[in-house]
Every structure is written in C-alpha cells, then in structure tokens.
Design a protein that fits this description.
Two copies of one chain form a homodimer.
Chain A lengths: L1 H8 L3 H12 L3 H14 L7 E6 L6 H16 L3 E6 L10 H7 L1 H5 L3 E4 L7 H17 L4 E6 L5 H6 L4 E6 L14 H4 L2 E4 L6 H16 L13 E3 L8 H12 L3 H31 L4 H9 L5 H15 L3
Parallel strand pairs in A: 1-4, 1-5, 2-3, 2-4, 5-6, 6-7
Helix pairs in contact in A: 1-2, 2-3, 2-7, 13-14
C-alpha cells in the first residue's frame, strides 16, 4: 500500500493503473484499501482541469482528444489523462483497442495516460469508479483530465456531474445526425465545437454554426456567468484547437472559487446518490418492506405509487420498531 | 370513509375536496385513510387525459387553461379539473385567489374543479400529493386534468413525470424572456404554443415561430413517434385553442398502449423515488452511518464522495450486523 501510494505520487503509470484497478474492484477487502488510498492521496488531488467531451458516435471524440492532447503535451508541457465512461460496457477494457488506435499519439506518449471505462452493473457504480480515477490521476500529477463519453445510455449526465467544463462536439451536417443527440445534452454544453470542419466540409461547418447559434438562443449553459461559445475545429488538420484551449482557460480564469464550490456540490450529490442507491439495494436484498413485490405489482399496472409507498413505509417501520 | 368514497364517485366537489385534503395530510392516521381511499378508488382512475402546462410567469397559463377549459366544457361537454404544482409555496392555498381571478369561468363552472398546489417541505412530497389529486379527480369523473406549473423551482420536471402530454406556452417576443425558461424545459415539450398571438403581437408571434422551428431541429420530444408541433394561440381572443385540442387528441389517438406503459413507468419511478427519499431521511433521522456528519464534512470541502460513502456503508452494515 505504501509503495502504491508513493508510486502514484511519483507519477508511475503502473502504480496509477494498479490504484485504479483497486478502486474498480468490488471485493470488500479491496474497497477498504481503496478507501485508505484515496484518503491518503486526498491532499494531492483537485489540481487538474476536468474536461468532459461528448458527441454522437462518429463525431471524432477520440481523434479530437488525441490532437488536443498532443498540442497540450508538446506546446504547453502538460500531462494529459484520458478516461472514458461507458455504462453500457459489460466488461472492462472493451474499448482499449479502439482507443489505442484512435489515440495513437497519446497511447505512446510518456506524458499521457489512457484508461478505458470501468465496468459496472449500475450507472452509479461506473460513475463512482470514474470519479475515483480522476482523483488518482490528479495525485499522479496529470494537469488535464479528459473524460470522454462512450456508447449510449446516460453517460452524458454522469460525465457532466464529474467535470468542470463540458465540451460538445457536433458534425458539420446539421440534419439527421442531430437526432442522435439526446435530450438535454446541448443544454449541458459549456463549449460547442463543430468538428471535421476541413476540406469540403468547411463551408458546411460555417453554415451549421449559424443554425446552431439561433438554436442556442433557446438555451443557456447551466454554469454561472458563462455563455456557451460556438466554434469550428478539425482534429485531422489540427485547426481550431488553440482557440478551444483558450476558451477552456477563459472558463477557469478568475473563477477558482466558483469551480471549487461546484466540485463540492458534485461531491455532496455523488455521496447522497451512492447512499440512496445502497439503501434501496440493501432494502431489496433484505426483502424488507416487500420492496420488490410492491415494485412488481406496479410494473404489472396494478395500484399506484403512493399507496405502494405507504405500504412499504409501514412495513419498514414495523421491521425496525420505530 | 364510505361516504367520502361514494361522494367522490358521485362527483361531489366537496367530497373530492375532502379526499384531497386527506391525501395531503401528513398525519399518519390520515395517511392510512388516504391509502385505503386510493385503493378503493383505484378501479375508477386512469381515464382522464393528463395534461401538463408550463411557461414562464406572465405567459398566461391560467388564462389559457380558463379559455381552453371553457371550450371543452361548453363545446365538448367535458369535465375539467385544474391542479397546480408549486414546490416553492410554503403554505397551501396561496394562489387560490389568483387562480379564481384568472380562471373566472372555471371557478364558477359546475363542470370544473380548481385546486391550488399542495404545500410540502420536499419536492417529492408535493409531487406525490399532486399525483394522488389526479387519481381522485379521475375517480370523480373529470375527463381532463390540467396540471399547471407555478412558481420557480423544479416544478416542470415534477409535472412532466405525472402527465401524458406536456404543453409549453411561450411569449411572442423571442428575446430575453427565453432566458427565463430553464434548462431542458423546451426539450420536454410535446406541444409548443406561442400565446398572446393577438393584436399587435400577431406578427411577432409568427416570426417567433420561425425562430423556434430552427431551434427545435436541435431537439426532439422524448415521447415515442411524436414530433413536437409549434402553433400560435390567443387566450383572450380564444383563437388557436381548437387546433391545440386537436393536437392533444392526435397525441392520444391510437396510442393507448404506449400511454399506459408510460404511466406505469411513471408510477414505478415515483414509487422508487418515494422509497429512496424515505430511506435516506430515515437514516439521517436515526443517525445511522453518520450520514449527516459525512455530508457536512463534504460540504466543508473535505474528503470525497466515494471515501465518505464507503465509511457510511461500513457503519450501516455494522449497525445491522449484516
């Protein structure tokens, strides 16, 4: 444990990997060790820029992260970590091959660390493991942590709730592909970039920007004092990346108190979410309050929620004599 | 109880009011009676159209409901109930005076029932009381139940999760007022109506429609096989209301299985939400697992969610020897 702790602080990638594996384990013994590790590393966390990246499959998220990461490493001398969140992934390491191909620069760089989505039976489980990953990467000295959404499902909301700034990549064609963007994702975006604005698509990208600008009038970023900017970029031509990084820096500039308080809110919410998820699972497992039967009855279209809940509550209180 | 039950089934407004008051009570004795009442009335519920109405303050929600309700009563011989959801209201009956003024027709009609938001210390509490209200109104023979969002807060999401179709009213000026619409509300809308499209504003309303149409390309209603239509209306000139009612009927047409399954999902979710809210409150009240201390520590920016959760879980399992 001491080696692991020191190894992570020294920036050893293998120690970091082992630390993450420990956090991802569901064995009670490992969970206890992970808890101790996180506690010890706690003073060394929190110093990175946590950046979420989302967009439909095919928009080029990995290629974008690879190009931007390369620039940050080569031009700004930063250390870059890339995590992905894929609640639909049944087993870990499913997308590592894909990532290694699309993130060829980062996969080989000394100053980059790429880790695929943890597996998990619940959305909450995947989210919490990724949260721990971010902390470990920070302790290992990574300056920028990209958290990429992969696959379908609710990964956008999960990632939004664990990063400081949320970047949405769009394709230049403003037509059908938009149907792939889920409810609310556009509104969560702090920065919107129309990717693949190169070659023949450059014109289309500019046109898309105009349309999106109108659409954005109906929305506003949830963050304080921030108006979501719209830009174009090309990961293959490596254009627009400097502008995007400038926007990220603007986002952080002079707002450390705000970001700190947002992170605190995220932690409190994550804690309560974990507790409630645990409590309901525990109640189901123990069969207290007939939770499963009552839910099953509702699923068959019988009764209503309030009536069922009152029944559950009564049984629960009886069980615990209170 | 028998009188109350029969009274509600006979459509007595005073019985309905008393039934709702019973459901809104927080006294355990009343809650038990409410449970019995809901259980008995259960076979007589579910037959109404449940319609949510939202929009910023000043858009004319009450006036709109009054005008549409009047038309439904006079021309289609329907019975109309109007409930409101205002999680910010500390005491019940706060807005009844306002409602009676703006809903002058419905307030006096034999075939209408208007009830202000229940009070409640929690969002969930307000939601559940309103859910029960809907069921009681259905048992009392109301064909249409409007659920209006009032005040700020999260009332939109609450209402969205208890209705079949969600109608968003917008003002003709497409400028600053849009800032008042919260994240995600536009995307929840099943029908969007630009209200106050009368007199000098008629032209502005048409212009707004064009803008909104572009914006809507970025979004899509969450309901199956439904594209959110955009229309104009005027509550004072009573224009556009027939078109809107036609759209509501289209929404229901041939989709009873879909609506039934959506309602079932809503009930299951509401049940689980109530159970989890109860469990976490119970844990806090009993002080099991140091929930409050752990949360307080996080709020002061100390530690992280996973570490705190593991501590909670350990303490909880120890408490219950499992």
């Amino acid at each position: 444990m001491k080696d692991l702790y020191q190894g992570i602080l020294n920036g050893s990638k293998s120690a970091l990997s082992r630390g993450i594996t420990l956090c991802e384990s569901t064995l009670p013994k490992h969970q206890e060790s992970a808890q101790v590790l996180l506690q010890k590393l706690s003073p060394n966390t929190g110093k990175s820029k946590r950046i979420g990246i989302t967009g439909v499959p095919g928009v080029g998220k990995s290629t974008f992260i690879n190009a931007l990461g390369k620039q940050l490493i080569e031009e700004s001398n930063l250390k870059v970590a890339v995590l992905s969140v894929d609640p639909s992934s049944p087993v870990s390491k499913g997308s590592i091959l894909g990532d290694k191909t699309r993130m060829s620069y980062l996969a080989q760089s000394e100053n980059a660390f790429v880790r695929p989505s943890p597996s998990g039976s619940t959305l909450g489980g995947v989210a919490e493991k990724t949260r721990s990953c971010i902390l470990l990467c920070e302790a290992a000295g990574y300056d920028v942590v990209f958290v990429e959404t992969v696959g379908v499902g609710q990964s956008e909301v999960l990632v939004y709730n664990m990063v400081d700034v949320f970047l949405l990549l769009l394709l230049p064609g403003a037509g059908d592909e938009l149907q792939g963007i889920k409810k609310g994702v556009v509104e969560m975006a702090d920065i919107i970039a129309v990717n693949k604005a190169d070659g023949e698509m450059e014109q289309a990208a500019r046109k898309a920007i105009t349309q999106y600008r109108l659409a954005l009038q109906l929305m506003h970023s949830g963050r304080e004092q921030w108006k979501t900017p719209l830009v174009t970029c090309s990961s293959t031509e490596e254009s627009g990346l400097t502008v995007i990084w400038k926007l990220v820096q603007d986002f952080y500039s002079g707002r450390s108190l705000y970001i700190e308080s947002e992170r605190t809110k995220q932690e409190v919410k994550a804690f309560e979410d974990q507790c409630t998820a645990f409590l309901i699972d525990w109640a189901k497992e123990k069969g207290i309050g007939h939770l499963n039967e009552l839910k099953g009855r509702l699923e068959r279209g019988k009764g209503n929620s309030t009536e069922s809940f009152l029944e559950f509550k009564k049984a629960w209180l009886q069980e615990f004599n209170s």
